[in-house]
């Protein structure tokens, strides 16, 4: 049986800057990210941490800034792979994620992190297109309002976009129950 990797995307302190990002949804997302991380580490399953290294001068996610650091929920993480990216997909980062997964025989992964409708959704879509069995931990993600669209609306649209096309959308509770 193949191992399922956990890919935690952009779980960074800079996303706590409400003045920069605006209103967010799903205040329980970080607790769910931590629950997934803890379960993966207990079972010694592969964990990948990805961070966004923004090139924008005003971004709190710029390298060298405190906002580029991982959030406290990832303290104590023992990842198998850590790398940065400057675009929305973890498959287009500083490491060839596809090659790394394939070299290890990993054909399935769970996506969680920030933001639901950008980096998490894009990574899930690319993973699905590359033939991976992708599970999207919807309640272990969050996003921010955009003009004319609330974070909750974006959250639901992402779930609809991914379901049955690119990924299986599940709750953290259901994912963890499947690990037992």
UniProtKB/TrEMBL annotation:
InterPro entries: Isochorismatase-like_dom, Isochorismatase-like_hydrls, Isochorismatase-like_sf. It is an enzyme of class 3 (hydrolase). Residues 4-173 form the Isochorismatase-like domain. Its EC number is 3.-.-.-. One of its GO terms (molecular function) is hydrolase activity. The keyword DNA damage does not apply. Keywords: Hydrolase. It comes from the Bacteria. This is Cysteine hydrolase family protein.
């Amino acid at each position: 049986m193949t191992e399922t990797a956990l890919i935690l995307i952009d779980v960074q302190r800079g996303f706590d800057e409400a003045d920069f990002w605006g209103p967010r949804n799903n205040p329980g997302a970080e607790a769910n990210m931590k629950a997934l991380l803890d379960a993966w580490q207990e079972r010694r399953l592969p964990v990948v941490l990805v961070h966004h290294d923004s090139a924008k001068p005003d971004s709190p996610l710029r390298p060298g800034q405190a906002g580029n650091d991982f959030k406290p929920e990832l303290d104590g993480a023992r990842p198998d792979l850590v790398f940065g990216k400057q675009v929305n997909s973890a498959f287009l980062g500083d490491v060839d994620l596809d090659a790394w997964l394939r070299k290890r025989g990993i054909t399935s992964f769970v996506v969680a992190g920030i933001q639901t409708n950008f980096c998490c959704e894009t990574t899930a879509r690319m993973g699905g297109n590359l033939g991976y069995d992708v599970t999207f931990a919807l309640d272990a993600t969050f996003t921010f309002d955009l003009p004319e669209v609330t974070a909750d609306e974006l959250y639901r649209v992402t779930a609809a976009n991914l379901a049955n096309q690119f990924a299986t959308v599940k709750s953290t509770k259901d994912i963890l129950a499947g690990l037992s």
